[in-house]
Write a structure and sequence with these properties.
single chain; about 220 residues; alpha+beta; Cathepsin D, subunit A, domain 1; 3-stranded mixed β-sheet; about 20% helix; about 30% strand; globular; Aspartic peptidase DDI1-type domain-containing protein; Peptidase_aspartic_dom_sf
């Protein structure tokens, strides 16, 4: 009797153990004299994010103007207050420089700092999801951290974080993100141009293809 490769792997117990969601990855850090015990490490964020209230707490009031926009998980678009350059973040015994985008929020999030890909790249972070560990490689120094596995996803105003950046030179893309008419989108844009809108466009095309041609 012939069996498939999938069945063979199951019968011979070659498949890895199925694991649950390990939760969010956090670091304890310090800016100035202020400790942050739950700074969220987020590979899904293209920027480092700091709430305006935290910036005021740190005594920072001078922000570099910016025209970038932030796209959140629910596709809402927000403009930040400004940018703070070269903030020294103390992790362990080392200082790591980071630029923060400052955003004004209605409610203080549970995890006030979002350390995105720029910080993780600067810190030489290696995230071991299976074992719940983060290693930071700073030159000859390697720091190992056990992360808190019981955390839930960080939210702002009840919305999960996914942060993308819209550059100043792409204002026309921002206008297209705000389109609410799927017919206009399908008629003016290719289906593969924006993956997150592909489902709506495909549904509209199928609907139009299912209709008979109009005969005057």
């Amino acid at each position: 009797m012939m069996i498939t490769k999938e069945c063979s792997a199951i019968l011979q117990n070659r498949m890895p153990e199925k694991l649950n969601d390990p939760g969010s990855f956090v670091l304890s850090c310090k800016i100035g004299s202020t400790h942050f015990h739950r700074a969220l490490c987020d590979l899904g964020s293209s920027v480092n994010l700091m709430p305006y209230s935290v910036a005021k707490l740190l005594g920072i009031t001078d922000f570099k103007p910016t025209k970038i926009s932030l796209v959140f998980a629910d596709r809402s678009v927000r403009r930040p207050v400004g940018v703070i350059m070269d903030v020294p973040i103390m992790v362990g015994d080392c200082y790591i420089p980071a630029d923060f985008v400052v955003l004004e929020l209605e409610h203080q999030p549970k995890d006030p700092l979002i350390l995105g890909r720029p910080f993780l790249a600067t810190a030489g972070a290696i995230i071991d999801v299976k074992n719940g560990k983060i290693d930071l490689h700073l030159g000859d120094i390697v720091m190992n951290f056990e992360v808190n596995k019981s955390m839930e996803k960080s939210t702002v105003d009840g919305q999960a974080f996914w942060i993308g950046e819209l550059a100043e030179t792409r204002e026309e893309v921002l206008d297209e993100l705000l389109l609410i008419d799927p017919l206009e989108l399908a008629l003016t844009k290719a289906e593969t141009e924006y993956e997150y809108m592909e489902r709506e466009a495909q549904c509209l095309v199928k609907f139009m293809d299912s209709k008979e041609a109009y005969k005057p």
